[in-house]
Design brief:
This protein has four helices and no strands. The protein has 79 residues and is an all-alpha fold.
Length: 79
């Protein structure tokens, strides 16, 4: 099974520099980024290692990741 990478550099390649800058200068963005990164790693590890996880729990994690990604994108486009 191929694992899709959802790190922000892959998701928003046009914003790589802005992501780095905001991580350094915006504490709220940095906290959201860290939460997104942690959650994304958890999802990728579960998928990569075929960890036992219910479909409902996997769906919940993915929805949380999407919500964080939406918040991060909103900051990226408004900053």
């Amino acid at each position: 099974m191929q694992i899709e990478h959802h790190d922000l550099a892959h998701e928003f390649p046009d914003f790589k520099e802005k992501i780095h800058l905001l991580k350094m200068e915006n504490h709220h963005f940095a906290r959201l980024f860290e939460a997104y990164h942690t959650l994304n790693n958890e999802i990728e590890q579960a998928e990569k290692n075929d960890l036992p996880i219910t479909d409902e729990h996997a769906e919940t994690l993915k929805k949380q990741r999407l919500e964080l990604k939406d918040q991060l994108y909103q900051i990226l486009t408004s900053a």
